[in-house]
Amino acid sequence: MTTDAFDQVEPRPGSPKRDTILSVDGLVRRFGGITAVDVDHLEIQANAITGLIGPNGAGKTTFFNLITGFDEVTAGTFQFKGEPLEGVPAYKVARKGLVRTFQLTKALSKLSVIENMKLGAVGQTGENPFKALVRPLWGSQEREIEARADELLKRFKLYEKRDDYAGELSGGQRKLLEMARALMADPEVICLDEPMAGVNPALTQSLLQHVKELKDEGLTVVFVEHDMDVVRDISDWVVVMAEGSIIAEGTHASIGKNQAVIDAYLGTAHEIDLGTIELDPEKH
Amino acid sequence: MNWSIIIESTLEAMVTKNAVVFALAAIGLNIHYGYTGLLNFGQAGFMAAGAYGTGIAITQWGWTIGPAAVFGIVLSVLLAFFLGLPTLRLRADYLAIVTIAAAEIIRRIVKSTQYSEVTGGSGGLNGIGRGFYDNNPIDSGLDLGIVSFSERELWFMVVGWGVVVLCMVLTYLLVRSPWGRVLKAIREDEDAVRSLGKNVTWYKMQSLILGGAFGALGGIMLTLEQQSVQPDQFFTPTTFFAFTALILGGAGRVFGPVVGSMLFWGIIQFTDVSLRQAIANDYIPTWLMDGVQAGQVRFIIAGGLLAALMIFRQQGLFGNKREVALDDH
Ligand SMILES: Nc1ncnc2c1ncn2[C@@H]1O[C@H](COP(=O)(O)OP(=O)(O)O)[C@@H](O)[C@H]1O
Ligand SMILES: [Mg+2]
Predict the structure, then answer these.
(1) What is the pTM of this model?
(2) How large is the ipTM?
């Protein structure tokens, strides 16, 4: 599926998609007096790359936390493949195929890189404490998992580090590891919270390539990113959040022309380099 | 100074009752804290569950040692559920608070006159498991010159260290498995583990149960060795002696808690006997310290040694320095 999945989609907040894999309705999350998330309606197109952008504090991370079961909604509902997910614990959400990474990386420092990766695999026989005692029961599965992990590590240029502690990696490498580890869990939808932050620019390009490949392999990618060049490069569709709500949706080109978006960024503009927002779509 | 007595009693302390009992308790804490990052400050409660479960089954219901010991372990499993269900979903500190309180509640319940018909009150239970020594196949003591053991001591050591080795093997098999990987990952960051589809709360419960059962085994061995059990053996410091042994040997290492327990009781005994000898020989004047005070001072000295160890060798004797260095991140 290519970007033409969006051909008939109106560029407005809450617009219906052709194949919706994830949808939210009336999703609200308040922290005391602060309304961190307040989304009327949002649909995510399956097998596409959706960029979620917005100024700092817009509620992007909280939105991810809510749909992946890491936070509880104040109000609202959301469905993954038509199945309601409110109140479903995070680990079950992940098993259903909706996997996320974290803005603040959670590399497991005292586990080696390869152990981090192997942890990600689902359905491991040896994770049962009784079967764990008998290596023949899980040994061959472990080898398969390890082979798959090595494969991914090579793709993410981490293979040379496989036996190092994850805590010894650089910040950018930890981001990569976290993303690779999430892929070990066989996701259908992967939610990446600022995956490129801190990643060595030399590596960003190949990482972007990997993300595009994920789509070719059938995955749905939702990612938060501040670098507008990255957003332009890989996203088929862009959703803009500000102060908890969706203020715009559309292709990258249509977003750049959207007055509400420009206002939102101008209103809060600090973290984001406005120069990188494509205010003039003709430029590209 | 009678050095042969000092050395003999130190060596003996390193291989007899307390070393065995606290090795088991510390192996349990190693599962909790060393591998899963759970703060169980009530290991004494699990030890009491094992000890009293066994003791009551034998003295009150006339059970034999085997089933009675199983009953003691079952009690510790129930205790783990009881403590874990409300707390394991919450932050780590809740478990710490609840366990330290629960262990103290257990001690006070078994000590109370209310239930003394079953628990023996403050006197505890006596005449537990005569069968343990009746079945002793060892018919002569062992004299190694510098230290000697009676046939009773030998029998306890064989069984006790046998159980310790069994628990170490079990720990080794488990921590190198994918199950152990999940526990270690939970120790590092439980949200990361959740995000990968693992039921973290349930794994923490499994860890609490297993480590608690090891603690219960410690209590059971204590009961069998003494053929009796007293409530105050499970006061709060008991938990912290086990923690000290674990930290001393190195948390997160299979051998750590065992070597730690041997060293801990070796140090305690060494300082105790040395001080008493020094007082008896007037090396230490009685206005400074008498024999009774020496019993307290040994813990002060042991604490000082531990503090020194933490300063100069944070990872414990067996710990991995590279791993400890990662904590700075
Ligand atoms: N646990 C929390 N407690 C209180 N306020 C929070 C919490 N998490 C997020 N917030 C607030 O919610 C708003 C949205 O935050 P966040 O989702 O992190 O934004 P973004 O990821 O878009 O930068 C912010 O105002 C933030 O301060
Ligand atoms: Mg964020």
Answers:
(1) 0.92
(2) 0.89
